[in-house]
């Protein structure tokens, strides 16, 4: 399975950006899809996760500002980010797995830089 993330870039604080991730090569559905991020010098952290049939999960730091969604027909995952803050600056990775508990597939990451 390959995951291709895109949409990162430079944006001013308060602005918006939408990330996209397209999966390919999967014979079976990816039940769990998620966005993680890693800021310089920090550990990778879960930003948002969407599991088929359940409500999306958001980290407290992005709740109310970010929206995760998926389009199964396009095998795609999205992250709409608004009211961006400098502390949102990080490399954002999409991740997916067939079922909870199985290993994640990872995308290559896309850099989001929020200037103050």
Specify the biggest β-sheet.
7 strands, mixed
Number of helices: 0
Instruction: Provide the gyration radius in Å.
Output: 13 Å
Net shape: globular
Average pLDDT level: 95
User: Helicity level, as a percent range?
Assistant: under 10%
Secondary-structure element order, N to C: EEEEEEEEEEE
Number of strands: 11
**Which percent band covers the strand fraction?**
over 45%
- Our measurement of the CA-to-CA distance between the termini, rounded to an integer number of angstroms, reads 37 Å
Keywords:
11 strands, 4-stranded antiparallel sheet, 0% helix, mainly beta, 53% strand, globular, single chain, 116 residues, 7-stranded mixed sheet
